[in-house]
């Protein structure tokens, strides 16, 4: 029945102030208000409908994305939306688009410009009153990856050879594998690209540098001479990421002016002299750090959507246990359902808070860069790489788990989960393969351990290594389940586990004559040590959040329950690490599990309200199973009839292919 809230009884059970929790989730009252207003604006505008997205053929799908992008652009201008509001608009339109790379790039290039003030190209254009980076009339993409190399950035093959005669670079794709491959927005829309290429002057290879290159005419949008561009083909899933034109790009001796090199770490002079500035070369990698922190911030949004759908549906769905003609049991009341679902709900909150913290850390490093302070770059790189890896892996796995938690109906596109998974899962690969990124964290950890004896004190997220002696010896010496709720106990357990795993790796590497050989041989252990370190960061940032003043009846208590679930679930999942490193006994591990079960029971009455606190509209969720009112079955039934296959009783092709077959069989049967 329309207008009935089938989840009303669930909502009445809440033991906390949901409106205050909405503000905690959004980050501030102001952020909540902006988010609430823009999400409703999008939901109520038929121009942003996404109902038929999974059924459209690619060309129509892509055209529709272009229409939506232009429409969004017009709204931004007509309604004078601020940057914050426009960003929310992009989020709630909920369609990956060519515009995403442009959006991200605009911000990170601003950073490079601001930091270096060495970017001659920008200076020249500013003098002319032009814009340093294409904005409204031009679109940019980030062309780093090639057909042959993605992770190994130093292995890229595109060349930028300086010609002092003409004061130009000649950009060339010397091999098939040097073709740029994957950049989003490149295939059909971008007019400009930041291209990573090997810089060559006077026959000498100076490694990878970045260049801004115009790709298409601003008149007729055709590729410029010497440039070949196309889309790389259909990707995983219906609709999903196929709204983006990931592209291929080749250069045939394309000439660009010298000052289109992004000269933030090095410069080429008019006479072709290569000058390296007194700044770390790694600054060239800063755009990746920028996008990674955004990906961490976005992970909680994707995971919370899936969790919201699975939680609401688990309260609606009933199976077994009817007694005396009464109702069957809601599947959310099965302990197995809780032990799969509630840690994901807790993870969504945990990722939200670690994302907020990472943004602050990133803002801090950008300010330091402008003051030429590079000291925190290695830590920020390790944090963004590690947390990108941890949150995207857990989110992709979590979305798939939510699909299974919804049983058969989760497999329908109308559940919203297949498309959400298909859109989300490449996050485990783009902006750095998740294993490659954890290996970067492991390098940072091994470096930290090797420097422990020196005067360099570990700070920031690695500060715990400073008390290594204690962490190597301490033992968990309490026996009661409730002891596991003490933040100091949880923190020490995660610190001891992370420290001991890193030290064990370092000791094992030292047994090899060549450390690089040892690192390669022990890579699988190193990845686990890196993960333990990253999990410690997430747990500790959740605990830090709880130390803040959090208003609202019962809000802090709910967050404490969620924090306990997040930490104890990890402890249960990685019990082998905690037992193996000797910090806890198996009896203590089983007591922790007892406490975890108690926390699930505490969370249960609040589950629906905790997902309501995400404040998602039905439009954004895009899921019949996750509808706010829980009116699932009539809507599922109704949606089935909208499938194109149901437009006729007899499908196309039946008379052409199946009928003759049936006739033939009938004839054969008659002959018998
Ligand atoms: C607003 C809109 C939001 C939209 C949401 C998102 C939509 C997203 C859309 C999708 C968009 C998708 C878009 C895309 O996918 S864009 C393509 C992304 N590609 C990658 O991420 C490639 C991954 N590979 C690498 O990052 C590197 O090559 C690795 C790390 C493997 C190094 O390999 P190698 O060992 O050969 O490197 P080296 O010798 O040159 O350098 C090593 C030194 O550099 C330090 N170092 C390394 N990296 C960084 C760094 N980043 N910041 C600071 N420092 C860094 C490192 O600690 C070491 O330092 P030291 O120990 O020597 O001191
Ligand atoms: C949807 C999508 C959008 C993208 N957008 C862009 C874009 O806008 N611009 C752009 O430039 N690129 C883009 N990319 C490319 C992306 O950044 C790369 O695909 C990514 O960095 C992984 O690199 P790769 O493909 O070379 O993987 P590979 O490195 O070839 O990975 C293959 C396997 O090898 C393993 N492996 C690789 N190296 C090591 C190692 N050292 N040790 C252990 N294992 C290793 C990996 O773990 C993985 O299992 C995009 C990719 C996707 C899927």
Report what the structure shows.
The structure is a single chain. This protein is of the alpha+beta class and 672 residues long. It contains 23 helices and 11 strands. Strands 1, 2, 3, 5, 6 and 9 form a 6-stranded mixed beta sheet that branches. A 3-stranded antiparallel beta sheet has the order 4-8-7, with no helix packed on it. Strands 10-11 form a two-stranded antiparallel ribbon. α6 (99-116) packs antiparallel against α8, α10 (377-405) packs across α12 and α10 (377-405) packs across α16. The longest helix is centred in the middle third of the chain and has 36 residues, at 335-370. The protein starts with 7 loop residues before the first helix and ends with a helix. Bound molecules: tetradecanoyl-COA (MYA) and flavin-adenine dinucleotide. Residues 487-663 form the Acyl-CoA oxidase C-terminal domain. It comes from Datura stramonium. Belongs to the acyl-CoA oxidase family. Its cofactor is FAD.
In a few lines, what is going on in this structure?
The chain has 672 residues and is an alpha+beta fold. Helix content is 52%, strand content 8%.
How far from one another are the termini? 55 Å
Q: Indicate the low-confidence ranges by residue numbers.
A: 108-136
Rg (CA only): 28 Å
- What is the helix tally? 23
Number of strand segments: 11
Major β-sheet, in short? 6 strands, mixed
Bound molecules: tetradecanoyl-COA, flavin-adenine dinucleotide
Shape: globular
Strand content: 5-15%
Helix vs. strand class: alpha+beta
The proportion of residues forming helix, as a percent range, comes to 40-55%
Query: What value does the average pLDDT take?
Result: 92
Family: Belongs to the acyl-CoA oxidase family.
Cofactor: FAD
Domain Acyl-CoA oxidase C-terminal: 487-663
Subcellular location: Peroxisome
């Amino acid at each position: 029945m329309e207008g009935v809230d089938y989840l009303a009884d669930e909502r009445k059970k809440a033991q906390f102030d949901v409106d205050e929790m909405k503000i905690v989730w959004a980050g501030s009252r102001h952020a909540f208000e902006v988010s609430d207003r823009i999400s409703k604006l999008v939901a109520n505008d038929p121009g942003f409908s996404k109902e038929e997205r999974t059924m459209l053929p690619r060309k129509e799908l892509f055209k529709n994305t272009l229409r939506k992008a232009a429409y969004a652009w017009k709204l931004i201008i007509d309604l004078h939306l601020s940057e914050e509001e426009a960003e929310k608009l992009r989020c709630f339109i909920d369609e990956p688009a060519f515009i995403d790379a442009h959006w991200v790039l605009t911000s990170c290039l601003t950073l490079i410009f601001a930091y270096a003030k060495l970017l001659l190209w920008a200076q020249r254009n500013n003098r002319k009153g032009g814009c340093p980076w294409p904005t409204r009339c031009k679109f940019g993409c980030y062309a780093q990856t090639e057909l042959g190399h993605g992770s190994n950035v130093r292995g890229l093959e595109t060349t930028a050879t300086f010609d002092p005669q003409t004061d130009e670079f000649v950009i060339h794709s010397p091999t098939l594998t040097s073709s740029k491959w994957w950049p989003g927005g490149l295939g059909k829309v971008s007019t400009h690209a930041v291209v990573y290429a090997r810089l060559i002057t006077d026959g000498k290879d100076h490694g990878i540098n970045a260049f801004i290159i115009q790709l298409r005419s601003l008149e007729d949008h055709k590729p410029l001479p010497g440039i070949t561009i196309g889309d790389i083909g259909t990707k995983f899933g219906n609709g999903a990421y196929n709204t983006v034109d990931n592209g291929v790009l080749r250069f045939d001796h394309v000439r660009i002016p010298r000052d289109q090199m992004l000269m933030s770490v090095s410069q080429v002079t008019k006479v072709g002299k290569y000058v390296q500035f007194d700044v770390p070369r790694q600054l060239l990698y800063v755009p990746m750090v920028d996008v990674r922190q955004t990906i961490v911030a976005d992970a909680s949004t994707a995971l919370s959507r899936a969790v919201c759908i699975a939680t609401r549906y688990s309260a609606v769905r009933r199976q077994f246990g009817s007694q005396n003609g009464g109702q069957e049991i809601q599947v959310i009341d099965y302990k197995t359902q809780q032990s799969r679902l509630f840690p994901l709900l807790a993870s969504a909150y945990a990722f939200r808070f670690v994302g907020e913290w990472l943004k602050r850390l990133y803002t801090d490093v950008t300010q330091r860069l402008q003051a030429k302070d590079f000291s925190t770059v290695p830590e920020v790189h390790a944090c963004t790489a590690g947390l990108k890896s941890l949150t995207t892996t857990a989110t992709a796995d979590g979305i798939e788990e939510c699909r299974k938690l919804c049983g058969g109906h989760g497999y329908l596109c109308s559940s919203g989960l297949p498309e959400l998974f298909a859109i989300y899962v490449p996050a485990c690969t783009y902006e750095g393969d998740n294993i490659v990124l954890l290996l970067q964290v492991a390098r940072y950890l091994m470096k930290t351990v090797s420097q422990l004896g020196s005067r360099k004190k570990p700070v920031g997220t690695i500060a715990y290594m400073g008390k290594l002696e204690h962490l190597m010896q301490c033992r968990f010496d309490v026996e009661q389940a409730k002891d596991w709720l003490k933040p100091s106990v949880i923190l020490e357990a995660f610190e001891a586990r992370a420290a001991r795993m890193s030290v064990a790796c370092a000791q094992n590497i030292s047994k090899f004559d060549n450390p690089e050989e040892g690192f390669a041989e022990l890579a699988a252990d190193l990845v686990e040590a890196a993960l333990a370190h990253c999990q410690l960061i997430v747990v500790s940032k959740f605990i830090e959040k709880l130390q803040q003043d959090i208003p609202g009846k019962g809000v802090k208590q709910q967050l404490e329950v969620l924090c306990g679930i997040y930490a104890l679930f990890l402890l249960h999942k990685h019990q082998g690490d905690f037992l193996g490193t000797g910090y806890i006994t198996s009896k203590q591990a089983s007591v922790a599990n007892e406490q975890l079960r108690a926390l699930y029971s505490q969370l249960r009455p609040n589950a629906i309200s905790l997902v309501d606190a995400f404040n998602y509209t039905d439009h954004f969720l895009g899921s019949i199973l996750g509808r706010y009112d829980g009116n699932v079955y009539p809507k599922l039934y109704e949606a089935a009839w909208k499938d194109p296959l149901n437009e006729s009783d007899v499908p196309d092709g039946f008379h052409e292919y199946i009928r003759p077959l049936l006739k033939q069989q009938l004839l054969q049967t008659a002959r018998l």
